[in-house]
Amino acid sequence: MGLVAVTWHNFLRKCHPQKIRSLHTLKVDHQLDQILLSPPLASLDIRDIWTPKSYCQNIPEVHKSFNEQNAVVLDGKLISMEIKSKIADEVRRMKKCLGKVPGLAVVLVGERRESQIYVRNKVTACEEVGISSMVTELSTDCAEAEVHNAVMQYNKDPSIHGILVQLPLPKHLDEEKVLDAVCLAKDVDGFHPLNIGNLAIAGREPLFTPCTPKGCIELLLRAGVEITGKKAVVIGRSNIVGLPTSLLLQRHHATVTVVHAFTENSKQVTCEADIVVSAAGLPNLVRGDWIKPGAVVIDVGTTPVEDPSYEDGYRLVGDVCFEEAVRVASIITPVPGGVGPMTVAMLLLNTLDSAKRILNFT
Amino acid sequence: MGLVAVTWHNFLRKCHPQKIRSLHTLKVDHQLDQILLSPPLASLDIRDIWTPKSYCQNIPEVHKSFNEQNAVVLDGKLISMEIKSKIADEVRRMKKCLGKVPGLAVVLVGERRESQIYVRNKVTACEEVGISSMVTELSTDCAEAEVHNAVMQYNKDPSIHGILVQLPLPKHLDEEKVLDAVCLAKDVDGFHPLNIGNLAIAGREPLFTPCTPKGCIELLLRAGVEITGKKAVVIGRSNIVGLPTSLLLQRHHATVTVVHAFTENSKQVTCEADIVVSAAGLPNLVRGDWIKPGAVVIDVGTTPVEDPSYEDGYRLVGDVCFEEAVRVASIITPVPGGVGPMTVAMLLLNTLDSAKRILNFT
């Protein structure tokens, strides 16, 4: 992991040497006992009171380190390492008390390069924190029954507390059926419609919150960004990022607008946002002039682009034109090294939480 | 029903004599065989293409009847009567073919006046279209087990195809538990988290779409309002109206913003909307200067306000200041006589659809 972190720092050093500023220059008082700053969801359901007085007119200014030249670049890698360190502590405590560790099962179908990399990263992350992991790899042309059987085996397996089907699946497979087969108590990706429904409905609580949205919120909270009452724009409405991120931001009482391919004048809409979360998967969709000065920009987009100058022959590119946005935003996440590592950390945390719930360990 | 329709017309005649313009002056080509103009949900899931060309730059101008003085007032009562007439035809056909009619069960707890009126209206509407109805009335202080038992009885009853628990429940009852007890196949209100989850997730389809949001969309479609790409603002985020309306508008490819009590400058946000759906339950929250000239305004708010000049001692007041908004909007719904009757019609339609599905009748 040290190597990866260095790689990310090298990336930043190469491209934006002046911009390497740790989150810790922003906010240092978050070292609580809890793993996340994110509160339990139910506590966010406070009553809507519609008198003008309830409007948040006196939100404290959070962009204390705001500098017209450069946004603060959030170090997702570093934050995820802190979170993983606390998860590792909890896994050790569980092992000591129960003689058991959380177990994550991954079902990977086909040879899509990015999927293979994501799965490899997840398995490595499990090893780092002491979570056991199992991967079932199936060929691109496998029958739906094979995928279904793999999921059902893991549903029954008492050593497995989280099951993750790596998406996207090859087109001949029915994603809906496969995801529905994952038993609710092990749905650590949080993609089951009952989890999404319970995320959407005020007063209810999903068993699991999808990992990337959860990681985005945690980044915002750790950076001290006030979410309540702020205008948030989520770009993209995928089932795995855009949709649950918009639902989660709304739980945090942001005024959320979802921008998608049919939005007229996406730039104008995005320009008005205090918080922009972009998850369209289109390199450089969000230019500097899409960003309101001082806005907070979370870049979820991670598109591999061929580049022979990189060791692997490609580099990962975000939705946001970083060079431009960093001069306008107050806080920004880089790609890679922003949301990506947070997603993996949240997956580990969901798996830990699932094991605790299943094993009744507190 | 004739009486109620007359009452609504009297209301309009009294308050806004010049504004009685039927929807039919707007669009007359919707007399299709199908009961609704609303398409099946799954068909709305078209692929997001993010090239600028896909942006809807050439939306046809829909406000053909727009007049600077007065918006077209949508006659929800009349439209709902048309829909109910078609539902009645279908119920007769079912009775002729199967010897069975759809059955709706209502569970009403307590003596809340509005709830009693709503339930009475629903029962009357069932009678009008030939749907059988049963009502279980329980006292305000009844035990949760009594409510649960009533629901479970209806779950088992083969003559019942739709079950509706009238909300809100008295505070000592756990609404979540009660709603979850309604079997999914009879959840005609569409409030079960699995239905909400499947409404939210692209590519999935809920068994039932909540009645009020479905009625709002049907009003928009019948008025010829283009939804795709338009800016829509939903005011209020209740589980029964605001949330599902925002999800449904997004399914129709609007760019949706949800305004709630924590929104900073709700007026400014609402001002930018092409379509405003207000469901806050606050009389006259939305003033004329909240509305963009030419916008379409759907007023879901229905708050009873004491008024001794009315026969019942009260009148129903919307969220929108009608007198002001009607001079700015291109299309507007009145309260009463706008969304309210559409909600009841959609409940009947959901019950019919449920009976068709359960009885395998096409």
From TrEMBL, chains A, B:
Pfam name, any one: THF_DHG_CYH_C
Keywords for the protein's UniProt record, in alphabetical order: Hydrolase, Multifunctional enzyme, NADP, One-carbon metabolism, Oxidoreductase, Photorespiration
Family annotation (SUPFAM superfamilies): Aminoacid dehydrogenase-like, N-terminal domain, NAD(P)-binding Rossmann-fold domains
Classification via CDD domains: NAD_bind_m-THF_DH_Cyclohyd
GO MF terms held by the record: methenyltetrahydrofolate cyclohydrolase activity; methylenetetrahydrofolate dehydrogenase (NADP+) activity
Pathway: One-carbon metabolism; tetrahydrofolate interconversion
Residue span, Tetrahydrofolate dehydrogenase/cyclohydrolase NAD(P)-binding domain: 210-357
One GO term describing the cellular component: cytosol
Biological processes annotated in GO: photorespiration; tetrahydrofolate interconversion
Catalytic reaction list: (6R)-5,10-methylene-5,6,7,8-tetrahydrofolate + NADP(+) = (6R)-5,10-methenyltetrahydrofolate + NADPH
Domain called Tetrahydrofolate dehydrogenase/cyclohydrolase catalytic: residue spans: 74-189
Quaternary structure annotation from Swiss-Prot or TrEMBL: Homodimer.
Biological role stated in the UniProt entry: Catalyzes the oxidation of 5,10-methylenetetrahydrofolate to 5,10-methenyltetrahydrofolate and then the hydrolysis of 5,10-methenyltetrahydrofolate to 10-formyltetrahydrofolate.
Protein family (similarity comment): Belongs to the tetrahydrofolate dehydrogenase/cyclohydrolase family.
Protein name from the UniProt record: Uncharacterized protein
Originating species: Arachis hypogaea (Peanut)
